[in-house]
Structures are given as structure tokens and as C-alpha cells.
């Protein structure tokens, strides 16, 4: 019987000879909501991109339920940081979400009526149905993030990877997004989130991957969100960690 896990083995990444990620290995259960945390510059986004094969890695393997991640790529949805997206690109909201159906369409196939209806259903699920004909660049940060979440939902993926989805968005959008992510988890989907707000860690995630260029800890939140591990990662005094929401 194949273990239901996502496994990262000996992941190493360097830029121009500078080590960014050093021999990171961990495994987490699939069907969980997993936070990737660590200080600024720890390599969180780099690790997510390297796991997905979006950037070169020096070495390392990633498996999902016993299969190399390259074999299950069509079942993976990725939402990049908002700062990495060209918001001036002339595309309306409904067409942005419709792009999520393309990986399953195959070469030269165009979306059908049912694909367009599914895209609108996903858009409605994130509370953005009335903005279907708006230009993506006209929306607020929180609205844009909801649209890109809808695009990932349109993929009907099994694994979701979101890079800093809560940065620069309004409270109501964050509440909508985390509710949807928890719903995906409850459906058996695996959700990875690069996250920076430590005060939300315990209420948002089932498991954590804590890094600072190397792995500090991985596993259930109660095991990883501990003062000694957080101090090792953030290299901050315990009194400061307390102000960030870490129990001391």
C-alpha cells in the first residue's frame, strides 16, 4: 500500500555559488493544510518553486504518494506571489479563471461551454462572480488573490501551492481564502502555503515546515511551533518570539 505522503529528499538550491537551500528533507501527510514558515530570506518561496520544478535545483527529489512530482504535474495548482504577476496584462477576470481549465484540455482544444460554466462556478465560490467582466488590473489586492485562487480551483487539482497568499490583502479576503483552503483540505486535497504571520499559524495549519536555508522542523503544528525550534529558525530572543505569537 502506497503511503499518502509528500516527500522531499535532499533538496539543494544555490544561486551563483551561494547556498539558498541546504539538503532539505521532510515528509508530510497528503490531505493536510501545511504552512511553510521561516524568517525573511529563509528560502521559503525558493523551496516551493524548487519543489515544483519552476527553478533549477542542484539536487533533490520530490514525490507525491510515491510518484515523482513531474508525473502528477497536471494535478498541481500553483498561485505565485502577487508581486510576480503582470497586473497590466489586458485580460478580464472570467478569462483569467478559465485559464485554469487549460492543463486538462490538451493541445489545440478550446474550452467548451461546460468549462466556462465551471470557471464561473469557481469564481462564484470565491465571492467574485460579479466581477467576471472586469479587467484583472482594476481589482484590489484581495480581489486579485481571490481570482487567482479561483483559477487554481478551476484546475481540479489534488495539490495546491500558494506563495504568500495573504500579503497585502484585506481581512475579508483573507477570511474567504483560508475558509476555502480548509475546505479543500477537508475534501482530501493537499495545500501548501508560504506564510509569514506567526500569530495565525496555530489556527490555520495542520502541519508546518520550518526552514532557514536548512530544515529546522517539520510535522504537526504542536510539535514544530515550539519556542526552541522557532528561536533556532528566527535567531531571536524568546521574549521577541512571544510578541509574534509563539508560546514561551
UniProtKB/TrEMBL annotation:
EC number: 3.6.3.34
Keyword Calcium: no
UniProt xrefs under Gene3D superfamilies: P-loop containing nucleotide triphosphate hydrolases (3.40.50.300)
Pfam families: ABC_tran (PF00005)
Domain of life, per lineage: Bacteria
GO MF terms held by the record: ATP binding; ATP hydrolysis activity
Keyword Transport set for record: yes
ABC transporter domain: residues covered: 6-238
Keywords: ATP-binding, Hydrolase, Nucleotide-binding, Transport
Family affiliation: Belongs to the ABC transporter superfamily.
Official protein name in the record: Manganese ABC transporter ATPase
Gene source species: Lederbergia lenta (Bacillus lentus)
Amino acid at each position: 500500500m502506497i503511503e499518502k505522503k509528500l516527500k522531499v529528499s535532499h533538496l539543494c538550491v544555490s544561486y551563483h555559488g551561494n547556498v539558498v537551500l541546504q539538503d532539505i528533507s521532510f515528509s508530510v501527510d497528503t490531505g493536510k493544510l501545511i504552512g511553510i514558515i521561516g524568517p525573511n530570506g529563509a528560502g521559503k518561496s525558493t523551496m516551493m518553486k524548487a519543489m515544483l520544478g519552476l527553478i533549477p535545483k542542484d539536487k533533490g527529489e520530490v514525490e507525491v504518494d510515491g510518484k515523482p512530482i513531474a508525473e502528477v504535474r497536471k494535478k498541481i495548482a500553483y498561485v505565485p506571489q502577487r508581486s510576480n504577476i503582470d497586473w497590466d496584462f489586458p485580460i478580464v477576470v472570467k478569462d483569467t479563471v478559465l485559464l485554469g481549465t487549460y492543463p486538462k484540455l490538451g493541445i489545440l482544444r478550446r474550452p467548451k461551454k461546460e468549462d466556462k460554466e465551471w470557471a464561473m462556478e469557481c469564481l462564484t465560490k470565491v465571492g467574485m462572480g460579479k466581477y467576471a467582466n472586469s479587467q484583472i488590473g482594476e481589482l484590489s489586492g484581495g480581489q486579485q488573490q481571490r481570482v487567482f485562487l479561483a483559477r487554481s480551483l478551476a484546475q481540479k487539482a489534488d495539490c495546491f501551492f500558494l506563495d504568500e497568499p495573504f500579503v497585502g490583502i484585506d481581512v475579508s479576503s483573507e477570511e474567504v481564502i483560508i475558509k476555502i483552503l480548509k475546505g479543500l483540505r477537508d475534501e482530501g486535497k493537499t495545500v501548501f502555503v508560504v506564510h509569514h504571520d506567526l500569530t495565525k499559524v496555530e489556527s490555520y495549519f495542520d502541519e508546518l515546515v520550518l526552514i532557514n536555508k536548512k530544515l529546522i522542523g517539520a510535522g504537526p503544528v504542536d510539535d514544530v511551533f515550539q519556542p526552541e525550534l522557532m528561536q533556532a529558525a528566527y535567531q531571536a530572543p524568546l521574549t521577541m518570539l512571544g510578541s509574534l505569537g509563539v508560546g514561551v
